[in-house]
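User: Run a structure prediction on this.
Assistant: Running it now.
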Amino acid sequence: MGKRRKARELVLQGLYALEVSDNPIKTVIEEIEEQDPDPTVQEFACDLLRKTVHNHTELDEVVSKSVKNWNFDRIAIIDRLILRQSLCELMHFEEIPPKVTINEAIDLAKKFSTAESGRFVNGILDAVLKQLKTEDKISKSGRGLMDGAVK
């Protein structure tokens, strides 16, 4: 398993822990750091976790606009967390290509949620990515980061 994949899994688990407990983010970060001693994994995981938690209201609003005829609160908790985390990556991690973020989200959904979740997450993130590009709210820099970009 790649380092970023491991980090993403740890973040999803951390987001779930925050969702169902009263633990402070500091405690969840300490747990992430205990799970993997690799500083590269820890750095990416902690950064993604912090940014996802810090921006969760904005991220949820973006997803809510994209789920037509569906109440955001009715989305399965794991799927919501995957969408929130992945959208954070799309919007706040300039160096990660959108295709990578979406593929990783699909894999997380397949591993941690239902058989249908991969397609659901893919559909929502594709729609959100198109909308963010239209609104000029996504910034990716570097070679190959916007390949296949929707204009």
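The CA atoms of residues 62 and 128 lie 7 Å apart.
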